[in-house]
Design goal:
binds adenosine-5'-triphosphate; nine-stranded mixed β-sheet; binds 1-O-pyrophosphono-5-O-phosphono-alpha-D-ribofuranose; 38% helix; alpha/beta
Length: 240
Amino acid sequence: MNPQQLTLALSKGRIFEETLPMLEAAGIRVLEDPEKSRKLILATNDPHLRVIIVRASDVPTYVQYGAADFGVAGKDVLLEHGGAGLYQPIDLAIAACRMSVAVSQGFDYDYAVRQGARLRVATKYTEIARQHFASKGVHIDLIKLYGSMELAPLVGLSDVIVDLVSTGNTLVANHLVEVEKIMDISSRLVVNQAALKLKRERLQPLLHAFSAAVALAAESAKCSAPSQLMQSMQKMQKEL
Ligand code: ATP
Ligand code: PRP
């Protein structure tokens, strides 16, 4: 293992896009756009840091086995994976949404989840669903899907779905109603436990930079003076 070389696992789309400003705060630029290139290994302006592009749900696996030293993954994905071999130091507060139960309009959810009842649940998030309904004492038949969950209650595949909700537009467009929030979801930085020890000197400044960028983003959400924010960002970039 080259202790200098670092590999960061990211997924295309919102995680890549929302992680970029944090990398930039650490002085790192990714030299290619995964939306335009078919390449899966992307160079950065730091010759010792490369980015690999993987499916969102595969990020923990790459990091667990050390194929990537660190990565960014949603709490949903991490709960489904189980977190073995991963250190999860920072909630990046990006890709924010919630995991919820949704039903067709008119479906009597309160009656359906009475103690001892049996419910057909379609979801990609089987672990989260299993634990949620077990905690309520509701027996479920789990139907594993890989996408378009909203369709399941509409065509009689399931009584309810467990899925991510952000604006709620997808539910509305499909005449579904959110009946219960299970948990808030955001994305976390995950680090391979062995890499954290063996590549500590290389990783630590990056972890600090991510933490600083999260704190700054939280501050900017409150801050009403953007020029002040720009000044503090520039100062921080120089210091890093
Ligand atoms: P895969 O490609 O592995 O099936 P995916 O399609 O869920 O995963 P993305 O859509 O890129 O991958 O989502 C990545 C992460 O972003 C999710 O794990 C979740 O934490 C978060 N997320 C998903 N949907 C939304 C949304 N509508 N708004 C905000 N964040 C979301
Ligand atoms: C997620 C989720 C919902 C949608 C909710 O899908 O599975 O379908 O977002 O967002 P909304 O409440 O803002 O409408 P995503 O956009 O990630 O598509 P995918 O599952 O096909 O990748």
